[in-house]
């Protein structure tokens, strides 16, 4: 690790914003920790399960009692990272992952004397003052960050995709593609406030499939989903709801096909070579899902004018029996993500 020993990560998770920021920052923290560095999370919003997960990884956690991205948030964050018991700024790096940490917030971190990284999915800030801007998505392009400082370095594309260490055990693993896909994984984020998961599993009930539905503990619809699956006796589909799964790589290895949100999970699925239909649940997922579809790495699914995902069942059926199409998807996906993204980011953060 040389002299850069402490990594502060400012990120949040809640029902409204989901768990993706914390989960991918956990991957970066693991990579930093593996090099001998310390990791300290700063969170204004976080679920109890994620708190437990961070503690189990040996990460420190401090709570920020302020509105994310506010002036008070910035003051409390800079106080924590500049407190006397912490090491010097030159031996520290700061990471900001969230849509609230825009221009003024970045200026505040810079004024405190720290080199820092901003994680950004679609160029949402007016200007970037960070030392590094990271966009791990396949839709990343330099023009999204035209308004940036002269010393700002861009880290763009899936070569920087951050995967947690449990996925790295599958490096070199080869997926077997069955003639007909039977095992379906549904994973639409940790919270899914609009309960798109229920719409998806309703569309699967008449198909002869084994379905595992992964939901986070912060999902407000868990009981409704569980109740729905209990009244499916006599239907062809076998559907199981799994809450707070701790074995996502194993579930992805089990599955023949996934229906997933078009966010950070896309790179875990790609690494595992799992053919997928990517649901566009938020504006920041659209470019990712559409680009994956354009590159033949998956299919994208948008809402219609009534807010429903019309045509999902047709897309599923088009893939279930199409072995060659799924095989092509698996090859293209696994080729795009090698699992070394978090380590590459640490290399950049350690550059003088």
Walkthrough of the structure:
The protein is of the alpha/beta class and 352 residues long. 36% of the residues lie in helices and 18% in strands. The protein is built from 13 helices and 13 strands. The chain has helices at 20-34, 48-56, 71-82, 103-111, 165-168, 196-204, 222-230, 248-254, 265-271, 283-294, 312-320, 323-336, 341-350, and strands spanning 6-11, 38-43, 60-63, 92-97, 115-119, 132-135, 153-156, 183-187, 210-215, 238-243, 257-261, 276-279, 299-301. The strands form 2 sheets. The chain has a 7-stranded parallel β-sheet, with helices on both faces. The protein has a 6-stranded parallel β-sheet with strand order 10-9-8-11-12-13, sandwiched between helices. α1 (20-34) packs across α13 and α9 (265-271) crosses α12 (323-336). The longest helix is centred in the first third of the chain and has 15 residues, at 20-34. The radius of gyration is 20 Å and the shape is globular. The model has no long low-confidence stretch (mean pLDDT 92).
How is this structure best summarized?
The chain has 352 residues and is α/β, with parallel strands linked by helices.
What radius of gyration results from the CA coordinates?
20 Å
> Can you give the mean pLDDT?
92
> Which regions have little confidence, pLDDT < 50, spanning 5+ residues?
none
What does the largest sheet look like?
Answer: 7 strands, parallel
Q: Order of SSEs, N→C? A: EHEHEHEHEEEHEHEHEHEHEHEHHH
Instruction: Give the tally of β-strands.
Output: 13
Tally of separate helices: 13
Level of helix content?
25-40%
- Quote the beta fraction: 15-25%
Terminal Cα separation, in Å? Answer: 12 Å
Main-sheet strand order equals: 3-2-1-4-5-6-7
Structural class: alpha/beta
Shape: globular
